[in-house]
Design brief:
The chain is an alpha+beta fold. It has three domains: 98 residues, conserved putative lor/sdh protein from methanococcus maripaludis s2 fold; 146 residues, Beta Barrel (Elongation Factor Tu (Ef-tu), domain 3), CATH 2.40.30; 123 residues, Helix Hairpins (Orthogonal Bundle). Helix content is 36%, strand content 33%. The protein contains four helices and 22 strands. The strands form four sheets. It has a six-stranded mixed sheet with strand order 1-22-18-17-21-2, with no helix packed on it. A hairpin with a 6-residue loop joins strand 17 and strand 18. The longest helix has 62 residues. The chain is elongated.
Amino acid sequence: MDRKIEKKKWRWQKVLPIAVVSALIIYFGINVYQSSGTSRLNVQTERLLLDTVHEGAFQEFIPVTGAVLPIKTVIIGAIEGGRVEQKYLEDGAILKAGQKILELSNPDLQLNYLNQEADIVAQINQIRSNSLMMEQQSLNLRETALDVDYQIDLFDKRVSRNKSLYGDGVIAEVEFQETEDQLEHLHRRKKLLVQTIKRDSASAVLQQQQMENSLDLMKRNLEIARKSLENLIVKAPIDGQLSGLTSELGELIVEGSQIAQIDDLSNFKIRVQVDEFYISRVFVGQTGSFQFAGEWYNLSIQKIYPQVINGAFAADMIFTGKTPDGIKRGQTVSVKLELSAQENAMMLARGGFYQTTGGNWVYVIDPATGNAIKRDIQIRRQNPNYYEVTSGLEIGDVVITSSYENFGNKDELILK
């Protein structure tokens, strides 16, 4: 029995040309779409880093490296030069104020002290001798004055008797006048003695004062010489730890040279190195913090060093609260130096896109298409973790934050 064979409507000879034509139409359609005013680029999403714009507490800060130093360091210098005769402590010793460190010898200072001491003894003896001489001279003048007074009394009486005798004609006029002349002479002599005694007294006082001033000066010089001898024994000015002591027995120490230093370990400070870019934004009193043994400690800038060395300047920061236990001199810590107070702001995570765009634009994911659209933005401030975005983005926007180096300047990224 014959069976009717139905003819197939679609054979591969017909399907293949249709498929090829359709593919060509789609290909040319995509090219036309991509070149119709908007530049596009196909991008694989596996290597992209994304971040969602959010609002939070933003604070501008920079991480700086700091070294732990003693709160105070005192340099011990050689006030007087000399040879090391005795070494009482070794480098690294913990000592108290006034404790001996070194003892020096200096024969010249010792001889100078002895000579000045001998000069003072001689000066004291000279003062005593001069005082005795002046006192003897004063006594002699007073004795002469007493004798003149006695002579005046005698001649006063004689003149009175002679005047009576001359009136009675017993003595001659010449004898009477001679008596009066002698009395007048004694009065003139007494007057001169009084002036001499006054001048002698004033001169004695002046000489005594000059000798005492000279003696006082010599005593002060002797005191300086004595202190110079005392300075040959080098002592600790404060409590602390001795460091830098390298002198050995017999070594000659030059006057003014540094012998060692003492570090006050009662507290510490952090000396940080700050990039010179921030030199106009760092001030005394500015705060910071660092983490040690799982706990945060607060700091405040106490001193800023204006010298810029190798592109950075130094600043000393002191603890405003408690000091961490176990911290040691020379340790390195990472300090969070605050440049502003915390403020509520719209934030975007830092990423490699900034190197390409300078923070002027980003690629934002379009929820409708799933593609990334180029959008202009404005970034105000930044810290090591976030950028502060002031315009161009909204909270909840998803932004590509990884590098745009391979994207060129396309308007849209087609994510695959």
